[in-house]
């Protein structure tokens, strides 16, 4: 009788001890906002971070489409965010309890062979694991392995919305697109896909003063944003029509750097068709289906084709630029929600064209 009374007296909103709310993947097309156990330290190098700001990535949508089969039913999604360190393992020396930190999308031990090469994305005990192989940041709390090399302390007053963009999209656009594409002064650059990653590549490519920057997309709103952020030309077309427009803009020469920022066969094909002799194709998009490599045409074209999973080696530099006001990631934030509105935020981001969405931010009051 006493147990029954206790249950009846418990407020409907009271949460079981040791639980939290999180956005959970339950297979292709299925997600839920539900109670999950609050994470605990599992290694001396772990930290527990209370999430204050997070966001949704295009990769999360790829997961929900079933393009990333390594993500299993029950996984908490998310690999971006800012938060407060709640607890640290005894082996953590560079971050402290109570400190505000940026959570990197890539977890790195800092000592394995890949980390010593600067390939943190392939860390033997990390890499892209948050929201992929372990629970991620779209939750009230997250466990971050290798906290000393996977968290970045932030100064007081740092703009959380802006800084959250540095967890993933800005290092990805910069490293996988701009650096791999070897953008240099005077180049003509085409970015296929004017989503958040493509726009991050647009902003960071301007570090190297290209002469022309062409944005290609079917969404007029995103192209307008591209123009406001520095695109010198925009092409609202796809497939052969897009190729024809780019070739006309370049006098038939093609572009020095073609950045693929979507991750579907059609956009990769556009890149292969517009790159000039001696040029670079930098693939950034997450591909869930095979693409056709046009070697019958490109074998003698002296091109360079690169792929990359972001390593986040440039995060400290980008963080300095953002904190100094020279890089303004906040310009990509279009929608704001509370963390409890995660399902609504996903609905908005999944219908980005109609909602005119770029990056959606979720805040925990």
List the keywords.
six-stranded parallel sheet, Rossmann fold, 29% helix, 365 residues, 15 strands, single chain, disordered N terminus, alpha/beta, seven-stranded mixed sheet, Quinone Oxidoreductase, Chain A, domain 1
Short description:
The chain is of the alpha/beta class. It has helices at 2-9, 58-65, 113-116, 147-150, 160-164, 169-179, 196-205, 220-228, 239-249, 265-274, 295-298, 315-323, 342-350, 352-355; strands at residues 19-25, 31-37, 47-55, 81-88, 100-103, 141-144, 151-153, 188-192, 212-217, 233-236, 255-260, 275-283, 304-306, 333-338, 359-363. The longest helix has 11 residues, at 169-179.
How would you sum up this structure, described in words?
The N terminus is likely disordered. The protein contains 14 helices and 15 strands. The longest helix has 11 residues. Helix 6 packs across helix 7 and helix 9 packs parallel to helix 10. Strand 12, helix 11 and strand 13 form a beta-alpha-beta unit. The strands form three sheets. Strands 3, 4, 5, 6, 7, 14 and 15 form a seven-stranded mixed β-sheet that branches. It has a six-stranded parallel β-sheet with strand order 10-9-8-11-12-13, sandwiched between helices. The chain starts with a helix and ends with a strand. 29% of the residues lie in helices and 24% in strands. The chain folds into two domains: 219 residues, Alpha-Beta Complex (Quinone Oxidoreductase, Chain A, domain 1), CATH 3.90.180; 136 residues, Rossmann fold (3-Layer(aba) Sandwich), CATH 3.40.50.720.
